[in-house]
């Protein structure tokens, strides 16, 4: 079973592609999302978030643990992701692989994913099957059996996953090295999947200690969205999870990153088809008002064919094959705003980097026009609303906000975006999108050391994949 350890935004994309789109159920418009939510906290500390949506006879059941790679230590990176894999290896009541088979046999789908800030597990099923994931998840919150015979093969699976997703992906390596250069103190420095040497050397005892520390009711949030009655479902959750020992919520503070004293640069040389440029700036997260202005800047730069970077670098100047901007908005701690471009064949890294810098400077120098600003706001608002089209996505949004701050902040997004002015855009660009706050990563392609094999009796031309 493939596990997902991308950022929240990539998690949404992967899961929607995998079939979650089948859970479409339009959001009610009579009340804001948070106004439809009920919350309860069990005596053992487990927080329960319930959202009734009766548009389809379906339900998503999700368990989120407040533990991700930011909670790991130097030399022990990748424990969160490894434990996510091991959570499917069975308990005294449920055998290895039986969890997934049970969900599938009852017409549901399930998966899990790890991020820097959390680890989450979910099941999407018919509403009449809701007791099944409730009992399965409560069982493995306390009763997971961690065995050496399961641990060693799964470690090899994770190491191969790292090779495929990161080591053999030049842009993934660049992204990883960029974060490691931008963050020197904060644990956003290391990748969610962990460094290869750490994966190779942590032990089963490390995993058992990690599970005992972080997998407990007081460090977890249950989110249920769909066709149910909260007066009926909450007692079911209390019966299943209530007897579990609450545990002590781990101390969640980590050292903050010091202000960057000047521009940093990293060059990665890998076998690749195209050169790439990435620029990352330290920015605030969802807990600060400026983060919403950065959302608007992201839309101005890269949302749609008519966005600034796409129009100027891709269509008009032909400098880049593809561009992107991303504001790491809903994160536990202040994160990064990144812009990136794949260099068009025949163009140079210097030309593309110069063009990216010019667009950052333009934001600081010129007030964005009212029509362009309103278009960006409209794009953000429509994207935010449409992201709530499925039961799963509604649960995902509530939970990711809860992991970063509180689920009640969901309703701040649209009003905050609407209130952004042209002067806000210029002010925030001047404060954050400046060279002294920037880490630049360059991917330089190098010739392949592994020539393409030629089938006997065939020509080189026949072995080239179009």
Textual characterization of the structure:
The strands form two sheets. The protein has a six-stranded mixed beta sheet with strand order 1-2-6-3-5-4, with helices on both faces. The chain folds into two domains: 8-241, Cytochrome Bc1 Complex, Chain A, domain 1, CATH 3.30.830; 264-446, 2-Layer Sandwich (Cytochrome Bc1 Complex, Chain A, domain 1). With 466 residues, the protein is α+β, with helices and mostly antiparallel strands. Residues 1-30 and 452-466 have low confidence and may be disordered. The two termini are 30 Å apart. The chain is built from 16 helices and eleven strands.
Given the helix and strand composition, which structural class is it? alpha+beta
Biggest β-sheet: strands ordered side by side in the sheet: 1-2-6-3-5-4
CATH topology of the largest domain: Cytochrome Bc1 Complex, Chain A, domain 1
Largest sheet: 6 strands, mixed
CATH class of the largest domain: Alpha Beta
Give me the CATH superfamily of the largest domain. Metalloenzyme, LuxS/M16 peptidase-like
Question: What is the number of independent domains?
Answer: 2
What's the gyration radius in Å?
23 Å
Proportion in β-strands: 15-25%
Give average pLDDT, whole number. Answer: 90
**CATH architecture descriptor of the largest domain:** 2-Layer Sandwich
Distance between the termini: 30 Å
Low-confidence stretches: 1-30, 452-466
> What is the H-and-E element order?
HEEEHHEEHHHHHEHEEHHEEHHHHHE
Q: Helicity range of the residues?
A: 40-55%
Total helical elements? 16
């Amino acid at each position: 079973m493939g596990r997902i350890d991308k950022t929240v935004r990539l998690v949404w994309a992967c899961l929607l592609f995998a079939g979650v789109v089948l859970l479409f159920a339009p959001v009610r418009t009579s009340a804001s999302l948070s106004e439809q939510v009920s919350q309860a906290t069990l005596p053992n500390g487990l927080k329960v978030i319930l959202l009734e949506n009766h548009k389809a006879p379906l339900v998503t059941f999700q368990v989120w643990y407040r533990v991700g790679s930011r909670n790991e230590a130097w030399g022990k990176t990748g424990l969160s992701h490894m434990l996510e894999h091991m959570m499917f290896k069975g308990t005294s009541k449920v055998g290895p692989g039986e969890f997934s088979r049970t969900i599938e046999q009852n017409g549901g789908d399930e998966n899990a994913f790890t991020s820097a800030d959390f680890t989450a597990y979910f099941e999407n099923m018919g509403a009449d099957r809701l007791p099944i994931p409730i009992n399965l998840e409560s069982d493995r919150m306390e009763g997971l059996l961690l065995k050496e015979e399961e641990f060693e093969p799964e470690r090899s699976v994770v190491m191969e996953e790292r090779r495929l997703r990161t080591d053999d992906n030049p842009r993934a390596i660049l992204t990883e090295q960029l974060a490691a250069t931008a963050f020197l103190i904060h644990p956003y420095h290391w990748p969610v999947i962990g460094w290869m040497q750490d994966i190779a050397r942590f032990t089963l005892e490390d995993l058992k200690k990690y599970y005992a520390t972080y997998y407990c009711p007081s460090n977890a949030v249950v989110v249920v969205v769909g066709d149910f009655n909260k007066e009926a479902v909450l007692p079911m959750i209390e019966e299943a999870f209530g007897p579990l020992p609450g545990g002590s919520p781990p101390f969640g503070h980590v050292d903050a990153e010091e202000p960057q004293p000047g521009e940093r640069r990293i060059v990665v040389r890998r076998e690749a088809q195209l050169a790439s440029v990435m620029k990352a700036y330290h920015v605030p997260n969802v807990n600060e008002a400026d983060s919403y202005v950065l959302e608007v800047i992201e839309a101005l730069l890269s949302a749609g064919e008519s966005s600034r970077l796409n129009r100027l670098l891709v269509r008009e100047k032909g400098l880049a094959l593809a561009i992107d901007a991303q504001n790491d908005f809903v994160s536990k701690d202040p994160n990064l705003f990144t812009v990136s471009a794949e260099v068009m064949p025949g163009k140079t890294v210097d030309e593309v980097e110069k063009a990216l810098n010019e667009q950052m400077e333009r934001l600081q120098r010129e007030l964005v026009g009212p029509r362009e600003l309103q278009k960006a706001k409209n794009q953000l608002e429509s994207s935010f609303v449409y992201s709530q089209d499925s039961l799963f996505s509604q649960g995902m949004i509530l939970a990711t906000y809860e992991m970063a701050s509180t689920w009640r902040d969901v309703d701040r997004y649209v009003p905050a975006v609407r209130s952004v002015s042209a002067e806000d855009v210029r002010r925030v660009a001047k404060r954050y999108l400046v060279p002294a706050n920037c880490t630049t990563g360059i991917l330089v392609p190098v010739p392949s050391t592994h020539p393409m094999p030629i089938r006997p009796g065939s020509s080189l031309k026949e072995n080239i994949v179009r």
